[in-house]
Amino acid sequence: NRTDGADYVYFTSEDAETEAIEGSVTPIPTDAPYSYLHIEKKTVSAITVTDGIAKAGENEVTSAFNGQKVTVASTIQETEDRKFDGWEVTKAPTGFTISAEELARREFSFIMPAGAVELTAHHSNRLEVTGGTATVNGNVVDFARPYADVTVTATDRSADGYQFDHWEVSGGDIGKTGDDQKANPLTFKMPDAAVKLTAVYRAAVKVSNGTAQVGTENGETVYALEGDTVTVTGHDSNASFSKFVGWKLKKGSLTKITDADDTSLNFKVDAENGYLLDADGEKIKNETIKFTMPGEPVELSAVYSIPRSEEHTSELQSPGKIA
User: Fold this and answer.
1) Lowest mean pLDDT among 100-109, 158-167, 221-230, 238-247
2) What torsion, rounded to 10 degrees, do the Cα atoms 37, 40, 44, 50 define?
3) Global confidence as pTM
């Protein structure tokens, strides 16, 4: 009961990847020399592609009939900071599926079902984190799709004498400012742009036989950002009869120091025992000094002497003990 030009398509194989033959173009031969023949009503359905194109043969199309082979290709422009990140099927008839492997390709083909199909090509932007890691859905990433929920976590460097302070954002607007950037971990929605974050740390200042002060923070150990002004003051438990000898630099480096009144002090570090020496090679006698914090931890010791005894520090003997 077939007539040439009828509105149908037919298949000569039950392989799901086999393209249908359009009956109006290639009628079924009279002798029908096929071992398998499946005939369906021809149905033309819309195909919508966001950030991509669809083709049937050599022609770009916005619709296709059931069984027709359709090829979609992403039109997303890739750069060092932007890359294609897979396809999403946003609408399709029940039972229609495309494999994850195919959806990961910039270009792939499928057999059109009897119903509308909508696909979206996604992209992701570079997410560069220095001093930490970024995750999306628990997975470590260096690219993320726009509007993805991103979590960045600073590396724990406490064992090396560093304490996390804040995130510096040098690329992309993550919608976080001020105290928000002190959060660790920090969460934000990925913008449609490359993002670059750097974990900024404060380094430890440790003082033996004294205290350090940065802003309102004061103690034997404080933490300071590079460029902060740090004030260190010697204290000795035998202050009633001990004498301040000088400062020893036990860890780190100093480039500039001043006295308590901010007068610059010319100095060098004794290569043999670490004492801070003035321009004449004498130990600096200022019990309070200030310095500009370098980028690494600093450890200083205030050295005191007791009459008729050896010089001592709190690291060598308990407070009040006379050598």
Assistant:
1) 238-247
2) -70
3) 0.79
Q: Which two tokens stand for residue 300?
A: 């200083």
Residue 224, C-beta contacts closer than 8 angstroms, at least 6 positions apart: 202, 203, 205, 214, 230, 293
**Residue 313: its pLDDT value, please?**
47
Question: What single DSSP character describes residue 242?
Answer: -
CA–CA separation, 234 vs 303, rounded Å?
8
- Look at phi and psi of residue 62 and say left if phi exceeds 0, alpha if psi is from -120 to 50, else beta: alpha
Rounded alpha-carbon distances, angstroms, from residue 273 to 180, 251, 268, 315, 319: 44, 12, 12, 15, 22
Q: Is 137 left (phi over 0), alpha (psi -120 to 50) or beta?
A: left
Residue 133 pLDDT exceeds 70: yes
* Strand blocks (E) in 209-282: 210-214, 217-219, 221-224, 229-234, 243-251, 257-259, 264-265, 268-269, 276-277
Which three-class secondary structure string do you get for 76-97? CCCECCEEEEEEEEEECCCCCC
CA 308 to chain centre: 59
How far apart are the C-alpha atoms of 30 and 123, rounded to whole Å?
50
**Phi-psi label, residue 232: left if phi above 0, alpha if psi -120 to 50, beta otherwise:** beta
In tens, the pLDDT along 166-218 reads: 999 988 899 999 999 999 999 999 999 999 999 999 999 999 999 999 999 99
Strand pairing category for 298-305 and 195-208:
parallel
Instruction: Please report which helix (H) or strand (E) contains residue 101, including its range.
Output: helix 100-103
In this prediction, residues 255-268 reach a mean pLDDT of 95
Rounded to whole angstroms, the Cα distance separating 105 from 111 reads 16
CB 307 within 8 A of CB 216: no
